[in-house]
Amino acid sequence: MDSFTLIIFGITGNLAQIKLIPALYDMEEKDLLPSDMTIVGIARKEMSDEELKHYVHTVLHLENIHHKHEIKEEVFKRLCKKFTYLSGQIQDQNLYEKLSNILKHGNRIFYLATYPELYHQIFENLQKNNLNKQNKGWIRLMIEKPIGCNLPSAKKLNKLLLKYFTEDQIFRLDHYLGKETLQNILTFRFANDIFEPLINKDYIDHIQIAAAEDFGIGKRGGYYDQVGALKDVGQNHQLQMLAFAAMDAPSEFSNEAVTKERIKILKNLIPMPDKVVYGQYEGYRKEENVSLQSNTDTFYALKTYINNERFKDVPIYIRAGKKLKQTVTEISIVFKNHVNRLFKSADSGDEPNVLIYRIQPNEGIVLKILTKVPGYDAKLQPEYMQYCYRPNPYTHKIPDPYERLLIDTIRGDQTFFNDAEEVEAQWAFIDPLIAVRGKPAIYEPGSWGPKEADELIEKDGRIWLEPSMDFCRI
Length: 474
Ligand SMILES: NC(=O)c1ccc[n+]([C@@H]2O[C@H](COP(=O)([O-])OP(=O)(O)OC[C@H]3O[C@@H](n4cnc5c(N)ncnc54)[C@H](OP(=O)(O)O)[C@@H]3O)[C@@H](O)[C@H]2O)c1
Description:
- The strands form two sheets. Strands 7, 8, 9, 10, 11, 12, 13, 14, 15 and 16 form a ten-stranded mixed beta sheet that branches. The protein has a six-stranded parallel beta sheet with strand order 3-2-1-4-5-6, sandwiched between helices.
- The chain is globular and about 80 Å long.
- It is built from 13 helices and 16 strands.
- The protein folds into two domains: 5-144, Rossmann fold, CATH 3.40.50.720; 177-398 and 420-458, 2-Layer Sandwich (Dihydrodipicolinate Reductase, domain 2), CATH 3.30.360.10.
- It has helices at residues 14-29, 49-60, 73-82, 93-102, 119-128, 151-164, 180-190, 221-227, 229-246, 255-267, 401-411, 420-434, 451-458, and strands at 5-9, 38-43, 83-87, 108-112, 139-144, 170-173, 204-212, 269-270, 276-281, 299-306, 316-321, 328-335, 354-360, 364-372, 380-388, 441-443.
- It starts with a strand and ends in a 16-residue tail after the last helix.
- Helix content is 33%, strand content 21%.
- The chain is α/β, with parallel strands linked by helices.
- Helix 1 packs across helix 3 (73-82).
- Bound molecules: NADP nicotinamide-adenine-dinucleotide phosphate.
């Protein structure tokens, strides 16, 4: 692997603490980082090298990070040797001069773990100091969601990015694309021949996508109250889940071909402003940094269709929210229950088959089928045929998405990143739904959201599926 410098703008922030530093530790432990690479952390706070070490140590031992395994002292020391810290204002020219002086490698990744309002100044200052020029190696930029807050602002940001970088240098992150459980949908669909012929309007009754959390907004009120559930997870993670589940087979497994197929789905989604329900959990307005009059959505449910031949008239129901009954993210492909099915009149005999891509928890791909209850009668019961992710004792279970996406960036592989057209297609679908966002319906914490969400699907003679915890309990 080529050596390189990773420059993180915002090393003291929340994202760096809960995602980047733990991912870098894991990569160091697995020997995935070149020994002579450098990590330059930037923020305003003054910190000596010793204080930086102490900071990294504290971060790796934080309670709230998903980094539950032991921190080994020798790995920590190796990682610390790679770290350098630069304090300064992003707006300040001097910072970039200091940065130029310490940059050893021509290959560089700039990671923007700071506010979007600062991007322009970062780019301008990098340019003034020739730091974005690819004359002695490759230069890549990693940039987090949100890319804009609607279609016009996303277009503006994409235009700005393209003023300083080329599209093949820009790695727009949606960490869901780095999830093993999402990427495996492509393998399941396109490496096996048996299911793909069934993934169409002739066999599928409808599709459901759920992203539920049983907790509230915690300390993120200041951010969340400006954004709401649909923009926070609907515009990005959930649309990507749908794209993976519904896209046509790419002509090859390359960035261009995979991204092209995802974009086709996103561009063909039909926004239905009269089929969206917004909810807010009771007590949300009393959360820290939330307005007492807030109408921000902490829940939404919507219906849509994909405007293509394959999924013509197949409804897609998407819901997500906070303080719901359960924490679960999954895609359910609900198959048609053909009229002439034998045993239809037996107990449970009319239950549909459901293909479930469980993103988390109880990660797996399972097929709900009907089986005979052992005994003398023709009684049926639903069971699950399952593929589950078994923890690998030699690695830390499933690789963290940030680790995966950092590796892809080092390799220059953009397959699991969004390009400008893709992000804009997502906003083009979401904007008409946001335009009708009024007062949300209040729902009880611990429920499945407001009753209006149930009515949305029940009007069509269907119900929301209760996510099962009966499979992949490892
Ligand atoms: N947190 C997450 O889980 C998450 C998830 C997805 C996307 N994101 C996105 O990632 C970005 C960062 O989010 P965050 O939650 O990490 O924010 P944050 O906790 O507020 O951190 C912001 C970072 O930027 C630095 N900073 C701010 N102003 C600066 C300036 N003028 N000069 C130099 N450094 C400056 C801060 O350091 P000092 O204050 O010490 O200078 C801090 O390190 C945002 O765009 C967010 O939307 C975050």
